[in-house]
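Work Package 3 (structural annotation) set out to generate three-dimensional models for the target panel prioritized at the project kickoff. During this period the team completed the workflow that converts sequence records into discrete structure tokens, so that structures can be stored uniformly alongside our sequence database. As a representative example, we reproduce one entry of 280 residues exactly as it appears in the project archive.
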Amino acid sequence: MRLDVGDESDDAMPLGPDEHPSPVSSGTFGEWAARIGTPAALPNIYLPSVERLSYPDGDEMFAGPALDEHARRYLMAATDARALRVRARVLQWIAQRSAIDVAGTLRWASLSCGPAYPVVAAIAAASEAGARVSATLVDTCTDALDASRRVALAHGVDPADHLFISVEDTPVSPAAVVEPGSQHLVEALALLSSVDDDEAPAALAEAFALVRPGGTLVFSVMLDDRPPCAGCAAIGWPTGPTFDLAGVAELLAAAGIPVADALALVPQDGVYAVVEVERL
């Protein structure tokens, strides 16, 4: 299904050829670019209008150096930055839709969550709509979980109401920390980028095993026919793994997940497909 998803950059002009900075750029852009491929790059991508660089410690998320106008424009208009924000909005839409008419506490899990802007924003929206969410956020990086707690506070979400679990030292199956068949929603947007290609079917199968009947698994893939990203390779943007939709179907089949129960949602930018699979 093709989607038209709004973003902060909709009113901004696309970046020109001379607006793609060098990876050795000086100043705050260079400091941010050095974080690409790590969770530390994400806060300024998800909130591109913020005037300061995110800072890894303390209560205030954006307490780093001031971003110059060039860096802020890049974070707003760069194709892959926009695609990550749009991917997050699709997840939030799915999560809010899944909360409709569900009695009792909603149980959500976030796997390989990074600074969990997508799922925390969904929790905040669900709470505003009167739903109660109990989330388990699992990551291999304790720094990312610390950032997720700060993101939760910034959204008015009490971290004490949710579980933050690190598997940094002893990576384990999700079933070791989340009860199988217990979750209304399992968010795994970044899961496939955190495992080797030959591990992907098993990783998806383990994530789907957490979903209760009527619940949903949400993951994403970068599309192999995505628009080109000028300057991405030089700066260090992630470039894969990539799939076409037939490859996604093959991956689901290899994971033992019914392909007929999956729906691929492709925003208009064509960078990612967000795949939702309902357990019937």
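The chain has a mean pLDDT of 88.
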